[in-house]
Amino acid sequence: MFDCRRPRSDITSNGKGRVLVVGTTPDYVDLLRRQCPDRCLFLTESRLRRQATEPQPEEEEEVLYRWEKQLSAWEVLRRHRDRHGIRIDGIACFDCESMPLASFLARQFGLPYPSSEAVGRCRNKARMRRCWQVNGTPCPRSLVARRPDEAVRFLHEIGGACVLKPLSGSGSELVFRVDQEADCRQAFEQVTAGLRARRAAPLYRSCKEGRASVLLEEYVEGDEFSCDFLIERRRVRVIRLTGKYRRREGPFGAIEAYELSSDRPDVCRDSRLEPYLLRAASSLGIDRAICMADFVVSGNRPVFLELTPRCGGDCLPSLLKTACDFDVLGLALRFAGESVGNVKVRVAEPVVALRLFANRAGTLLQTDTTALADDPRVLSVVLTRQPGAQLQLPPLDYDSWILGHVIYRPDPLRDVSVQNDELTSLFRMRIAPG
Questions:
Q1: Which of 63, 116, 133, 409 counts the highest number of beta carbons within 10 A?
Q2: CATH code: domain of residue 191
Q3: Residue 132 lies in a domain
Q4: Dist CA 25 CA 319 (whole Å)
Q5: Using one digit for the tens of pLDDT, what is the confidence trace for 120-132?
C-alpha cells in the first residue's frame, strides 16, 4: 500500500504542510479528504461546490474561486494561506481543464509543475501530434480541418477509416470513426455543432486553433492500452498498465472496461515501453510529472493517442485500490512535493473495472446491485449516480450516463468481453423517460 501521509516531523513552525489540489470536482475532494486526511488544500470552482451533494470541507481546507476570475485565485490563496498558517508544499491537479491554472499557481508559488507551454501542448491535440512527429514518437497521421471538404480530402488521402475529434477535450466526447464520405461530412458537422453547444465549457476554452476546427487522424487498428507513469530526471517509471475494452454500442471510443493484468504484449514490457514514454513526454516539454498515456499497439510499437500530466481517473484509482491496495491519488499528492522511491503496482492475477452505463435518458428512479454483489467474481460495486439524477445520453452528455463501476476478478478460462456482458446484465435500473 502507498501511504500518502507525511511524517509528523514535516509539519513545522513554518506552517501546516498541504498540497494544493487545483480545480478538482467535489467527489474527488471528498475521496481525497477520506483517503488522505489533513493533507490537502482544495481550490474549488464555486459553481461546482454549490451543485455538490458531498459534504463540504472545513473552512480551512477549501478555497472557492470563480472560473472567469482565475487570476484572482492567486491573491485569494495567499490570504487564505497566511490567515490559517498553511505551508503549500506542492501542486496537484486531476482535471484537464484546470491544468493551466495549476501551472500558473505553481509558477507564482515557486513549486514544481509542468509549464504552461507544456500544458498547452497536451491540451491541444494538433500541437501534441506536431511535437511527436518532429521527434519521431509514433502517432497517427493527422490534419486540422476547418471545412467539411478538407475532412473528406483527408479521408481519401489515407485510403481508410479516420477518426474525427475536437482539438481539446477528453475521452470519447464528440469522437467519431468514419469510413465513407457522407459519414465524414456528417461527423464533421456533429463535432462543430457539439463544440458550439459547449463553447462555455472550461474543457473547450483552451483551444487556440478556432472553435470550428476539427482534428482528423488515421484510425489505427490494434489493442488499446492506458498507463500511468512517473517522469523525473530523464527517467521514466511505469506505475500502471491496463488494457481497454471498447463498448460495442454507443459513441466510438467509449471504454466499457479496463483490465489490470501482468499478461501483456512484449512492447508493453517496462524496458521497451519506458523509452517511448520518455520521448513522448519530453517532446511536449514535460520533465517532471505523474502522467497518463493512451496508445494502441500496432505491430511491434506503441502508437500514441493522448498524453497528459495527471494520473488516470474515473474507475482506475478504484481498480488499483481494490486489486492491489495501491493509492495512486496518494502517490500523486506525495510526488507533488517530493521525489518518491520505487513505486510499482504488483499484479497477482487479472482484475477488471467494468463501467455501468444508463440505457436511456431521463430521471434515475432506482438502482439494484444485489445480483451483482452476490456474484462470486465481484470484489466491489461503486455507484456514482443516485436516484433523482437527471441522465442524458451522448452526444448531448458524455458524463451523466455513467452510473458507476464494478471491480471483479474474471474467470481466467473465459473471455473477458463475455463476462463483462454477463455482469452488466445483472445490474438493474429504473429510469423515467424525459
A1: 63
A2: 3.30.1490.20
A3: no
A4: 19
A5: 999 999 999 999 9
Do residues 37 and 354 make contact, with C-beta atoms less than 8 angstroms apart? no
The CA–CA distances, whole Å, from 216 to 53, 173, 194, 200, 420 equal 39, 14, 16, 23, 31
Task: Find the mean pLDDT for residues 28-53.
Answer: 93
Domain membership of residue 2 (yes or no) is no
Answer yes or no: do 416 and 341 share one domain. Answer: yes
Pair 351, 313 in one domain: yes
For a pLDDT cut of 90, what percent of the chain falls above it?
81
Determine contact, residues 243/265, Cβ cutoff 8 Å: no
pLDDT at 50: 93
How do 176-178 and 214-218 pair as beta strands? Answer: unpaired
Mean pLDDT of 306-318: 96
Task: Provide the greatest CA pair distance for the chain.
Answer: 67
Considering the domain architecture, whether residues 58 and 189 belong to the same structural domain is answered as no
The answer to whether 228 and 328 are in contact (CB under 8 A) is yes
Beta strands in 316-392 (DSSP E): 351-357, 362-368, 378-383, 390-391
Does residue 82 share a domain with residue 41? yes
pLDDT band per the 50, 70, 90 thresholds, residue 4: low
Q: Which domain holds residue 201?
A: 141-218
| pLDDT at res. 15 | 60
Identify whether residues 230 and 202 lie together within a single domain: no
- For the beta sheet containing 288-298, the strands, ordered from the edge strand earlier in sequence to the opposite edge, are 301-308, 288-298, 223-232, 235-246, 255-260, 351-357, 402-408, 378-383
